[in-house]
Specification:
Number of strands of chain A: 9
Helix content of chain B: under 10%
Largest sheet of chain A: 6 strands, mixed
Structural class of chain A: mainly beta
Structural class of chain B: mainly beta
Order of helices and strands of chain A: EEEEEEEEE
Radius of gyration of chain B: 14 Å
Oligomer: heterodimer
Strand content of chain B: over 45%
Chain lengths: ~110, ~120
């Protein structure tokens, strides 16, 4: 059972928007630790998608956005594209566990 | 652009030691300001942080691995290594070498392609 809770799956048609939630607790997200998001395409290594709660690395389309509030964070994908079909993971730091923690991942399906 | 390449055995026997190496190219390995480490992903599962360290000698481990893990960095040869002792089937996973810039606002910004390890007799 992951420390950060994500929905197992979300889906949407091309062009639509989807949102992935990441719920933590007072020992991780709620303690002020930043949330980062990763995209893992099938058969590949994860790729940093969002860092520091809201920031996109160079090259990441602005269709991807994220925010953090309280003990939760969310990743939004607008204008869904077929190539966005992947697993998405949130990540933070947990002071009780003294380590970096990940959500279990959310599979995004483009219908 | 930094590149990370993992290498090591594909199969390890239960109770033995798993040893992996990550070769770093493209600069920044000996530079203060980055953590280098390992993350693994069991078959069909999620991501688990194993350990991180930097060129100043600081190392951090996932407490859940109960002292079975050791990482080391050789900045002159530009590689880092991972050793997991007394492996079981639960250690079967794809192991990724990673880089994370110092600072709490940084994520794991570079990943190797991963190397698959099975623990089996």
């Amino acid at each position: 059972q992951s420390v950060l809770t994500q929905p197992p799956s979300v889906s949407g048609a091309p062009g639509q928007s989807v949102t992935i939630s990441c719920t933590g607790s007072s020992s991780n997200i709620g303690a002020g630790y930043d949330v980062h998001w990763y995209q893992q395409l099938p058969g590949t290594a994860p790729k940093l998608l969002i860092y520091g709660n809201t920031n996109r690395p160079s090259g990441v389309p602005d269709r991807f956005s994220a925010f953090k509030s309280g003990t939760s964070a969310s990743l939004a994908i607008t204008g869904l594209q077929p190539e966005d079909e992947a697993d998405y993971y949130c990540q933070s730091y947990d002071r009780s566990l003294s380590g970096y923690v990940f959500g279990a991942g959310t599979k995004v399906t483009v219908l | 652009q930094v590149q990370l390449q993992e290498s090591g055995p594909e199969v390890v026997k239960p109770s033995e030691t798993l040893s992996l190496t990550c070769t770093v190219s493209g600069g920044s390995f000996g530079t203060i300001g980055y953590y280098w480490g390992w993350i693994r992903q069991p078959p069909g599962g999620g991501l688990e942080w194993i350990a991180s360290g930097d060129s100043a000698g600081s190392t951090y481990y996932n407490p859940s691995l109960k002292g079975r893990v050791t990482i080391s960095l050789d900045t002159s040869k530009k590689y880092l290594s991972l050793r997991i002792r007394s492996v079981t089937a639960a250690d079967t996973a794809v192991y990724f070498c990673t880089r994370r810039p110092h600072g709490s606002s940084s994520g794991f910004d570079s990943w190797g392609r991963g190397t698959r390890v099975s623990v089996s007799s």
